[in-house]
Fold this sequence. Notes:
With 347 residues, the chain is of the alpha/beta class. The protein has a domain of 237 residues: Rossmann fold (3-Layer(aba) Sandwich), CATH 3.40.50.850. It has a 6-stranded parallel sheet with strand order 9-8-7-10-11-12. Helix 10 links the parallel strand 11 and strand 12. The two termini are 43 Å apart.
Amino acid sequence: MRKSVVIVALILGMPALLWGQQAPRTYVNRLTPIKNAPPLLNDHPDYIEPIKTGPRFEAPLLIDDKNADLDVRAWRFSYNARGIIEAPNRLESKATAILVVHPWGVDDGQGWKSPEPAGAAFHCTPFKNRLTVKHMKDVVNPFLKKHRGRVGLVGYSLPGTADAIRGKLYRSVKHQPNADERQQGTKELAARLSSFSYKGQPIPEKIVISSDKPAVDYFRQFPGLDASAKFNNDGFWNLPIPVAKPIEVAERDLVFYDADGYTVLRDFLKKQGIRHVLLAGYSTDMCVCSTTAGYKNLRKDFNVFLVGDATLATFPGHDTPRFATSAAVSFASLDLFITQVSWVRLR
Length: 347
């Protein structure tokens, strides 16, 4: 009888073993109060407002890979638990990808610029774009450099498809460019971006409004964001959007294109043995959640950790992304684990 039980147990665990996974285990959801806990996301307060709310709880180890060499502490918020829950995780680096959503290279010196006098792209004004580029230099690029070579993949998502120019610049799921192609792609990118006229119409001087619905008429003719050809000039969105200059793209880094769809991204990651994703990028409240490489897609198939201080939200009406990013990350924590750069550590 005992032999039969053992045989049945082995058979039930066989699919996991065949795929190199550990057999299922029962997770004890024990929450231990944390006293005098320091603020979360406190390392880069210029970019994200630290989170100081309580209560805070410690949960047992969640992910425990057999060949773990990467410690990732993370937290989520639960209304039902009435607080923030922190949990340690032990990941295998080679089964982990770092993905950066939409690091658009605009107003970064490569030639793609915010159209004048009223055009809008990326974080929508030259000032906000320069601040975003600084965040890439201060936070995202050092994070990538630290873990590149250890993790299974470093990748970026960009709009569109692998056009003739970006196909020469960046590795994709279909092509690995050589040194000559990269050099040629760099020249072609500079020529294409510099040849465009970054001039659009100014904001309207006069707006015809009705007597009964002036606000309706006003906003219909002068919305808060119009990134059409009217202000950006025709053809602006057909230009090849590069990865931003502060991010030092390595030869084996890979670009995923939104127009290829999530299935292409998912299948490629799985083929590479990726099970965990450390997610960074721009804009936390929009692209990072809802585009092809956004967490709403990825969390269905991978263990996703949003790197809270390696992302920036849109911040209209403000001269700092601190509060908007903190709010966007907090909202994401309802359905997603949040970590931070300093919590991702080699064992």
